[in-house]
């Protein structure tokens, strides 16, 4: 293509247009800067000097002088909420919602923010209403998750289940705690003088459906299966169906072997009702060889001590503690021996202990060991570290589900 000399005329014209545009932008920026209150720059200066309290006061002053600064309002509200100043956070977001000219997107955001303020302040009724108000907005998913937490804290399991279903309609993700919501409903149906077995059975059927939807290999599936099986065994026991109770408890050995220790006593009791004590003990001993746990050790030692005497019980204990050393295990053994001695002071059956530990002062030995094992005889939440003497499906500290391993602290170290 031939070059025309007269095209060069456009070069200075383009430079001139660029200079004019730059001047206009600069003047506009300077004009906007002059309109900002001095408090704004004071707030920035305080932030740079790491004086957050004075910076907040300065920005609050800016918000009072210029109500149109919606982004600053949102920033202040979030900052107050993080600092735990819930009254101030609520007041900031309420001031935004009171504006009739607030754009729809900002109004929805303000509604969601004030819902979070109410939730953190513990005002659950107001938080629930505020989250419900944004169910049809872009905040629908986080709002549904917050509503689930609210219903959990209120132990309103039917509404929590409904909220999970609504969440699943918005996002395709597994919700493992749905199984526990159904189990909580089943436990509620079994309480009282007149348990509702039909309602408990329906809730456990729904729990089984929820487990199947989780799919194999999902984290927490084994814990859920153990809880459902134990509740079905409880229903069978309350209805006098000993064989079904035994079958449900035995199923835990295969579906959730790590959780057997939690139900070892109930398992042996179910065999005892059927007159099959030896079979139950043999099965539990076999399971212990594959999946050793302190709870199973304690149950087996006590049962062997009652059924076969001191020598057989201590022989089992020696082999078990050699394979899996445990101060807690030894502490529990000595506790059983001391209890038995207290019940048989006038009998001759305690000679077996002397044959095992000649001349030992079991009371002194146990007191020394017990002092060191008290802090180890606990379950611990893997999420927040909350420790408890009893096993919980939901942590009392952080309300997380299935964060307690079915093993004591000593076994986890």
TrEMBL record:
One matching Pfam family, short form? TPR_16
Q: Does the keyword Ubl conjugation apply?
A: no
Query: Which top-level group of life is the source organism from?
Result: Bacteria
Q: Does the keyword Cell inner membrane apply?
A: yes
UniProt-listed InterPro entries: LapB (IPR030865), Rubredoxin_2 (IPR041166), TPR-like_helical_dom_sf (IPR011990)
The membrane topology term of the UniProt record is: Single-pass membrane protein
Q: Show the stretches that span the lipid bilayer.
A: 6-24
Q: GO CC annotations?
A: cytoplasmic side of plasma membrane
Describe the location of the LapB rubredoxin metal binding domain by residue ranges. 379-403
Under SUPFAM superfamilies, the record lists: TPR-like (SSF48452)
Q: What biological-process GO terms show up in the record?
A: lipopolysaccharide metabolic process; regulation of lipid biosynthetic process
Q: Which UniProt keywords apply?
A: Cell inner membrane, Cell membrane, Iron, Membrane, Metal-binding, Repeat, TPR repeat, Transmembrane, Transmembrane helix
Show the GO MF annotations: iron ion binding
**So which stretches are on the Cytoplasmic side?**
23-413
Where do the annotations place Fe cation binding?
Answer: 381, 384, 395, 398
Compartments in which it is found: Cell inner membrane
Stored HAMAP family:
LPS_assembly_LapB
Q: Which NCBIfam families does its entry note?
A: PRK11788.1-3 (NF008755)
Function, as annotated: Modulates cellular lipopolysaccharide (LPS) levels by regulating LpxC, which is involved in lipid A biosynthesis. May act by modulating the proteolytic activity of FtsH towards LpxC. May also coordinate assembly of proteins involved in LPS synthesis at the plasma membrane.
Name the protein family: Belongs to the LapB family.
What is the official name of this protein in its record?
Answer: Lipopolysaccharide assembly protein B
Please name the source species.
Alcaligenes pakistanensis
């Amino acid at each position: 293509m031939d070059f025309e000399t007269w095209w060069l005329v456009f070069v200075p014209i383009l430079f001139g247009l660029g200079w004019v545009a730059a001047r206009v932008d600069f003047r506009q920026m300077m004009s906007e800067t002059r309109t900002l209150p001095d408090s704004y720059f004071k707030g920035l200066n305080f932030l740079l000097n790491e004086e957050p309290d004075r910076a907040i006061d300065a920005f609050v002053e800016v918000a009072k002088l210029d109500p149109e600064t919606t982004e600053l309002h949102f920033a202040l509200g979030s900052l107050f909420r993080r600092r735990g100043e819930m009254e101030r956070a609520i007041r900031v977001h309420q001031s935004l919602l009171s504006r009739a000219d607030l754009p729809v997107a900002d109004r929805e955001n303000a509604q969601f923010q004030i819902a979070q303020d109410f939730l953190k302040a513990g005002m659950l009724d107001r938080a629930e209403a505020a989250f419900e108000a944004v169910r049809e907005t872009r905040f629908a998913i986080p709002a549904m998750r917050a509503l689930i937490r609210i219903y959990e804290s209120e132990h309103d399991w039917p509404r929590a289940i409904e909220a999970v279903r609504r969440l699943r309609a918005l996002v395709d993700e597994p919700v493992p705690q749905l199984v526990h919501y159904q189990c909580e409903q089943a436990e509620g149906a079994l309480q009282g003088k007149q348990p509702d077995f039909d309602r408990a059975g329906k809730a456990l059927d729904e729990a089984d459906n929820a487990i199947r939807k989780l799919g194999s290999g999902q984290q927490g599936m084994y814990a859920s299966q153990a809880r459902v099986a134990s509740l079905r065994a409880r229903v069978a026991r309350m209805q006098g169906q000993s064989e079904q109770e035994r079958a449900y408890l035995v199923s835990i050995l295969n579906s959730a072997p790590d959780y057997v220790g939690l139900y070892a006593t109930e398992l042996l009791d179910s065999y005892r009702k059927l007159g099959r004590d030896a079979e139950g003990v043999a099965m539990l001993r076999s399971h212990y060889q594959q999946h050793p746990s302190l709870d199973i050790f304690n149950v087996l030692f006590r049962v062997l001590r009652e059924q076969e005497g001191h020598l057989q019980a201590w022989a089992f204990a020696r082999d078990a503690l050699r394979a899996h050393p445990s101060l807690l295990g030894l502490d529990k053994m000595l506790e059983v021996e001391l209890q038995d001695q207290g019940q048989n002071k006038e009998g001759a059956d305690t000679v077996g202990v002397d044959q095992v530990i000649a001349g030992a002062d079991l009371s002194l030995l146990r007191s020394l060991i017990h002092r060191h094992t008290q802090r180890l005889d606990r379950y611990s939440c893997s999420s927040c570290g909350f420790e408890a003497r009893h096993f919980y499906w939901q942590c009392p500290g952080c309300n997380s589900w299935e964060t307690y391993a079915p093993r004591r602290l000593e076994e986890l170290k």
